[in-house]
Amino acid sequence: MEYGIVRHDWKHAEVKALFEMPFNDLLFYAASVHRKNFKQNEVQISTLLSIKTGACPEDCKYCPQSGHYKTDLERERLMEVEKVVNQAKLAKEKGATRFCMGAAWSDPKDRDMPYIEKMVKEVSALGLETCMTLGKLDNEKAHALRNAGLDYYNHNLDTSPEYYEQIITTRTYADRLNTIDHVRDAGMKVCSGGIVGMGEQAADRYGLLMQLANLPKQPESVPINMLVKVAGTPLEDVEDLDHFEFIRTIAVARIMMPESYVRLSAGRTAMNEQMQSMCFFAGANSIFYGDKLLTTENPEADADMNLLKKLGMKPETREDYSDEAYEASLNSAIADKATSELFYEAK
Ligand code: SAM
Ligand code: DTB
Ligand code: SF4
Question: What gap in Å lies between CA 157 and CA 218, rounded to an integer?
Fold first, then answer.
């Protein structure tokens, strides 16, 4: 079978067969696809900031920010533009290339838009890629964000269509697909993935990946979150997902979406270094970087840099198209290609 090509017609039986491959064969396959499409030792790094925290009207059972559950979270109103820009500067100094701003909203309201648009413009002006996750978007708001210069919009499908109603009742799966359509129509890049470890069946993990891969255009960025269990949420005591199953999910996402960045997202504080490095081998090539996700802990930035160093990996930088840098990147691409061709012949 030819591999490493983008397909939009994945069937349940094929996905199941991938998940059920011997573990090392699956990892070898995923790593081969990864090397074919990316520089295998580079990781894209994004920093998150919660720009509006808590009291969300939606009832997502995993979420500490839902107003339906009693968690220890302190709610905060929409952050001032200047504070957001200061946080973005710090993230850039620490090496992030993308700044992702999240709001605990069902959707942004008209009154919020001028502030949101200003944030996008000012963060872009720092030379960072911009991403927002603000809930549902209609066509008009998607265009407004694009016109402000927003590069990516994050909107997760979260799980399979079949399991979805066990997790969220206030917004439908179709609502989510519509938002993704609007983001695409407006010309922004799509960041969409899901959460595993929410008590779903293996078939729901297949279903989530099939939904993402079979979209008319696959998301440029696919965050795979492992549930962070937060006290007070309905999923606080759900059974842990087996770590090998998590690594398999990364590997299958890499195979099904060969040209997408697969992000090892929430849940890394519960993973040791060896597990994270297996996820990188399985094709994860993006992480959230910085001590905090939106409201929960993430590994310390320095610990992440140390891990990358130990693995001989490095953060991806935004390309600088000065003649010298262009030539250097061209040479390294040629060298990488030569290595990956050797790798294929070895198979
Ligand atoms: N309110 C917006 C929305 O839901 O579209 C944006 C923010 S929301 C917190 C972004 C994503 O974070 C969710 O879609 C979910 O996939 C992820 N998330 C939230 N709580 C999580 C948790 N406890 N563990 C893992 N992922 C989580
Ligand atoms: C995504 O898929 N994961 C991020 C981001 N997109 C917005 C959020 C993870 C949130 C984890 C729980 C929290 O910190 O509140
Ligand atoms: Fe609200 Fe987003 Fe949390 Fe759902 S995931 S409760 S929409 S903040």
Answer: 13
CA atoms within 13 A on the CB side of 281: 16
Out of 50, 52, 62, 63, give the residue to mutate to test ligand 3, the one with the largest number of ligand atoms within 8 Å of its CB. 63
pLDDT along the chain (347 residues), means of 10: 83 96 96 92 93 93 94 88 93 89 95 94 92 96 95 97 96 97 96 97 98 97 96 95 97 97 94 96 94 89 92 80 41 45 37
Whole-number Å distance between alpha carbons of 140 and 125: 23
Kindly report the number of other CB atoms within 10 A of residue 205's CB atom: 26
CA dihedral 341, 222, 146, 161 (to 10 degrees): 140
Tokens of 75: 């709610």
| Residue-level pLDDT at 1 | 55
Answer for the pair 27, 278: CB distance below 8 angstroms, yes or no.
yes
pLDDT of residue 327: 46
Which residue of the set 98, 171, 263, 268 is catalytic? 263
Listed in sequence order, the residues at least 6 apart from 156 whose beta carbon sits closer than 8 Å to its beta carbon are: 176, 192, 193, 194, 195, 223, 225
Phi, psi (deg, nearest 5) at residue 126: -80, -10
Q: Give catalytic status of residue 56 as yes or no.
A: yes
Identify the burial level of 127 via C-beta atoms within 10 angstroms of its C-beta, where 0-12 means exposed, 13-18 middle and 19 or more buried: exposed
* 158 CB near ligand 1 (under 6 Å): yes
Question: What is the DSSP code (8-state) at residue 292?
Answer: B
> What is the model's pLDDT at position 345?
35
Please give the domain boundaries of the chain with CATH numbers for all domains. Answer: 39-238+261-273+284-330 (3.20.20.70)
